[in-house]
Design a protein that fits this description.
Aminopeptidase; 4 helices; alpha+beta; 5-stranded mixed sheet; 24% helix; 22% strand
Length: 152
């Protein structure tokens, strides 16, 4: 595993316009984000409670991202944990999740929710996430279809 070097990467809570464009490209590379428009990604970022961007210091390039929708008291849901493909497996996602889970604004939150593919359960379990086996189950109402590209 490569050393992450504190001087090489930094976490930011606001993205520049150029980084929002990079975020759009990163989102479109995900199996769930192929149809998302730049306009929608801009709107999403403007209305997100807390977002973390992992930036390369010299180039200011967006290398990773995650976001949270929350009331900062009772519930918070983690979305869109992503790292550029060529740098996956080098601890950048771990750095994002550690920053998120230790974030001072989330300390008071009772429950952090996260939805992911089963193969990612071991990754998220490092921070105490576990499969929920309670009385309630998630329900969904689809108001606008976001179908992934068919070639993925």
């Amino acid at each position: 595993m490569n050393n992450l070097g504190e001087d090489k990467y930094m976490i930011v809570e606001e993205l520049t316009e150029a980084q929002i464009v990079q975020l759009h490209a990163l989102v479109r590379q995900q199996w769930w984000g192929g149809q998302r428009t730049l306009e929608d990604v801009i709107l999403m970022s403007e209305n997100t409670s807390l977002m973390l961007g992992l930036i390369e210091v010299g180039s200011h390039r967006l290398l990773g991202y995650c976001r949270v929708l929350t009331d900062f008291t009772f519930r918070a849901t983690v979305y869109d944990v992503m790292v550029v493909e060529e740098l996956q497996g080098r601890g950048l996602g771990k750095r994002l999740m550690e920053t998120l889970c230790e974030h001072p604004r989330l300390r008071r939150v009772s429950f952090l929710y996260l939805c992911c593919e089963e193969k990612l359960f071991p990754f998220y379990s490092r921070w105490g996430f576990e499969v929920y086996d309670g009385k309630a189950e998630w329900m969904i109402k689809v108001q606008r279809e976001e179908s992934p590209e068919t070639d993925r």
